[in-house]
Amino acid sequence: LCSFCSSAYVPKTEAGHCKWAEVLKDLERIQTSKDIDVSLYTANADEDVKCLEFVMRCFFLETEEIIQECRIKNCSKTQDVWNIWKNGNESFEKNKLSSTKSEKCKECEEYEEKNFTEFVQNFVKVIQRDCK
Q: How many domains does one find in the chain?
């Protein structure tokens, strides 16, 4: 996907540590980015708890769109976005879907499209819910 990205990526998982802590840090770094202007399918932070895993997958899937946008525009935060995507995918590979999809859970494309800022804010809220 990105030749210069892999060298700077270091997966971090510490016992008793929220598995999304690094993602949260990267989200905070990109939150104020002015050069990312993209509409993304954005799940609500208060989705049914049974759907949390699917909601997380949708957020990580949408980060691929941000990576594409950053490639085109050469964003200042490309590395941070790449780290978010990489951390998310690695975590999901290690932890195969533990829940079966409930009828209540939406497909990613069923969520409303929101701007980048709202997307990041909701992503942060969902991660914080998962990390409690």
A: 1
Residue 32 maps to which CATH number?
1.20.1250.70
Q: Which positions ≥6 away from 31 have C-beta within 8 Å?
A: 117, 120, 121, 124
Quote the domain boundaries for residue 79.
20-131
Contact 119, 62 (CB under 8 A): yes
Residue 70 CB-density burial (10 A; 0-12 exposed, 13-18 middle, 19+ buried): buried
Kindly indicate the confidence band of residue 97, based on its pLDDT and cuts at 50, 70 and 90: low
Element at 41 (helix H, strand E):
strand 40-42
What is the value of pTM for the model shown?
0.80
